[in-house]
Design a protein that fits this description.
Aspartate Aminotransferase, domain 1, Aspartate Aminotransferase, domain 2, alpha/beta, seven-stranded mixed β-sheet, homodimer
């Protein structure tokens, strides 16, 4: 198959040196070489997430760590508050229910964001019942980015009541800064196939001491996603079961690239420029943005298809030019389309893509 | 790090063309290209496992699918019968308990095998209580290979009573033939980093119609390892959450290599010869084999360290020659050592390894 450059919200485009890192010769996962690899990678991930917390390297998609949050942080008799604003946050509520947890649903219309005061209103009355809040920072289905920092600040007021928040930062982590320790985040997770720009199969999380203490109070956390086991094995720079070594190697190479070559601040600035670039293009061509104003994602743009273009035809024409974008997701599949601008997609790539779209749609 | 050839029981040695397959440019996991890949891979895996059953491709280590068996096949009020004969089968019983299942323990001394009549004796009395038997076909910790075919034949007598068996074929699958359909296996799983000779991060299982029907009777199967979701997504050649695409590509390439280049029968014959070779070497040098006679693994040999050699020193000397073997596991760490001869380790490699060991230990 001939490769199409990926402007889809994951898996994102992967650079050749990272693909090369995927092809490393194999090593034993209980060897010194492996421990050296994990020991080298972990502090770099911590630096990327501005944290001293435990780093969890889970051989799974991010869905696995979404389930881990539900399994590890809810004590018997306590409830989950699910902030629902799109397909992936709706799904997280479903994951909680599939694990027999009682869920309070905070639902907003797709395209709308979660406002901090919505959480405050609920916690004012029900903080004592709620052990865990589920927040999707960047709803990949709607292009909504929720204000994680401000929401975390609200949650922090209720920490003494036992409220803990898990943040799904899939398609946000490494596209925007997440100041884990400064913001007081207890658990933040992502898959590496989004703004980390690696192939899929590994999920990463940072887990606070407070989250560890909470997990200790929860019986029957399952086995594969028992986070306390990960913390225990971290001591010797290993994982409880065999890890996806090739991807951890690729993550290590990627961290070095981000920290030493691009620089974190440059990365955030580049993503901000790229998001602007796509949003401005969409607006200037007469499209509307799907998300509520002020809640625009820095990783991908969800564009309302108010001009009723044929997205399938557009994508097929783009395919012939070696590029691919994404249609809408779930119930807004036909009403929107999405352009991803995170990870190792650069301004030059986006300029080419937008010129191609203009050309195909006859916009100039 | 300079590469050491792996004679350890996983991850096993990976060939260059498979490493190259790991470096494939990324594709979307909801794209036609991905569906074509999964659609091409699945029938080949079925052919390798002599089955028409559903193939589950799980982005996890095999531990994940061991947990899946426990989550999907035990109805409320029913019990698990765990056949325990080493570290990994002991752990499976632990996985069942971590998920709040009631476990009947059939325990034999490490090094001994599970005899079919042991299972028959229990089922004669308790078949009605037991929903799921957990059998590790090849105990990687002790080098014991249990007679899966004969044990399955016993279990099949009790199918009407609702007894189902899950077989962990880690370090057996692709080292010995597993005639899934002929033997009547309902669920057999393995990680791909053993006799499949791929890097770790993907687990594979075959799941029968009967197993699917059972799962439908089990509420709260969790989410990530809800096997019915995998079956549902198989219809469109996709997986419920983002799969480890690079490894599925490598699996596809490996299947072609096995089926078209080596041939299944040749593969089984080669593994039998390689197992003989290592066992004969050990015995001729005055070592004893750790497993009970008749229960020798075809994938790896666990050797009793009755000559009290220093395995760490041996391994360190082997390391300088670009090779590595494995010490014992768990409570027999010092009393045994292990040489793996499965997957893409060939007779020539083993001859070199054994000559090196002879040389280092002064056996010639």
């Amino acid at each position: 198959m001939s490769h199409k450059k990926l402007f889809i919200p994951g898996p994102t485009e992967v650079l050749p040196d990272i693909l090369e890192a995927m092809a490393m010769p194999m090593i034993g996962h209980r060897s010194k070489d492996y421990a050296a690899l994990q020991g080298e990678t972990t502090p770099k991930v911590q630096q990327c997430l501005y944290t001293k917390n435990q780093i969890i390297l889970s051989t799974s998609s991010s869905t696995g760590l979404m389930e881990a949050a539900v399994l590890n942080f809810v004590r018997p008799g306590k409830k989950v508050l699910a902030c629902m604003c799109g397909a992936f946050s709706d799904r997280w509520a479903g994951i909680a229910k599939a694990n027999n947890k009682e869920v309070i649903e905070l639902k907003v219309e797709w395209g709308k964001g979660i406002h901090p005061e919505m959480i405050d209103d609920i916690l004012k009355k029900q903080a004592g019942e709620i052990d865990l809040i589920l927040l999707v920072m960047n709803e990949t289905s709607t292009g909504v980015m929720n204000p994680a920092k401000e929401i975390q600040a609200v949650v922090n007021k209720y920490k003494d009541a036992g409220v803990l928040m898990a943040i799904d930062a899939v398609s946000a982590m490494m596209a925007v800064p997440i100041h884990t320790d400064d913001w007081g985040i207890d658990f933040v997770l992502a898959g590496v196939q989004k703004a980390w720009s690696l192939p899929p199969g590994l999920a990463v999380a940072a887990m606070s001491e407070r989250a560890i203490e909470r997990a200790k109070e929860v019986p029957h956390r399952g086995y594969y996603f028992d986070l306390l086991e990960y913390v225990k094995y971290n001591e010797k720079n290993q994982t409880p079961s065999t890890p996806v070594i090739s991807l951890i190697n690729a993550l290590n190479v990627m961290c070095t690239r981000i920290l030493d070559k691009e620089g974190l601040d440059n990365r955030w600035a580049r993503h901000a420029r790229q998001a602007d670039m796509v949003r401005n293009w969409a607006l200037s061509r007469g499209f509307e943005l799907f998300p509520e104003k002020g809640f625009y994602s820095q990783g991908l743009t969800c564009i309302k298809n108010n001009k009723e273009i044929n997205v399938a035809d557009l994508n097929s024409a783009l395919g012939k030019r070696g590029k691919t974008i994404s249609n809408g997701y779930g119930k807004i599949k036909d009403a929107t389309f999405r352009i991803s601008h995170m990870g190792d997609i650069y301004e030059k790539d986006l300029a080419e893509l937008l010129a191609d779209i203009d050309d195909i749609l006859g916009y100039k």
